Amino acid sequence: MSKELTLAEVIELLNNVEVESLEGVTFEGDIEIEIDESVMNFREEANKLIESRFTVGTVKEWTTAIEEVTIGATPANGGTRGHAVTIGGEKALPYYFDSEMKNPTCVVAIDVFDMPIQLAKSVRTSYEDVMESPSDWAKKAVSEYHADMIALHLISTDPKRKDASASEASKTVEDVLQAVDVPIIISGSGTHKKDPEVLEKAAEVSEGERCLIASANPDNDYERVARAANKYGHVLLSWTQLEINAQKELNRKLIKHCGVSRDRIVMDPTTAALGYGLDYAYSNVERIRLAGLTGDNELNFPVLSATTNAWNAREAWMSSSPLKEDGNWGERDHRGLIWEASTGFALALAGCELFMMMHPGSAQLLKKITRMLGGSINEEKTDLSNWITKLII
Known about the structure:
The radius of gyration is 34 Å and the shape is elongated. It is of the alpha/beta class and 393 residues long. Strands 8-7-6-5-4-3-10-9 form an eight-stranded parallel sheet. Helix 9 packs parallel to helix 11 (332-350). It has one domain: TIM Barrel, CATH 3.20.20.20. It is built from twelve helices and ten strands. The chain starts with 6 loop residues before the first helix and ends in a 19-residue tail after the last helix.
């Protein structure tokens, strides 16, 4: 058996023998390093981190603020509303680090109709007990679903429905104004020939309440609607169809020819639903907002989204796909809610501040998301360990 020698013993052995060189000799062995335990436990103090401040560059081209528009008049301002809503005032796209958002970036007006109307089942269950009474419908939207505003649609005036008179419609406006104290949007039936008359009478009976009159558009007598809004102290909705140049032209006419003041104009460039042209609506709103921020004073106004249009998409309300090759669309009640909220959220990112919505759950979800992004409420901590089966809504 060979004897194991340490390196020190080998060196000592060689020193005792006069050896000039070694040939054909191989040394094999292991090297063992012994380190004192106190050295092992020693930790060098960490160096101090270099102090640095995180900054985000600003967009120098954004030189123009969006006009601030107030909807609703409190008793101090000659009205009877419990509160007013101010939108606009931004100096950047929504939720940018350098954006000033002194006013709410998401104000929700829940839709109320002056007669029963066909609604998706998941929406109808929230309102079926009040659909015969617009004032009760409005009360429920405010008291139970926390609507910031009410969007009253006078669809009974449509000649193809009840063909109600302007006077009959104005009585409904009065009833709703007495039932709730939130700001009101007053909309016609979409009948270009009749709407100016209906909106004129509605503006008269709501004088001083600073309602949003919807709408002046290129296809109706917008001058008559604008005169009524001016005469009775209201805000005017400028509505066009997904065309930025048409929006510019209409705004210009309202200001220069009709004398509408800049603090009384809100734009509706048209909302196309998710799956039905949302990309066009998003691009159009974003172009309008960027133009306004960079100095186009014919486009720097707040923007409204008729997010209710999301329910026109069959995917929002049908129980399943009519196509056999399609997969399961998921639970209808949740699908429609998310469809409307997703449509609104996309347009909120583009620059919309005011949203007309139907499903109370969609409205609350959109408000929660946008207020979390805006910093007005904190994000709730969520245990995502079971994220596969977690029900988010």
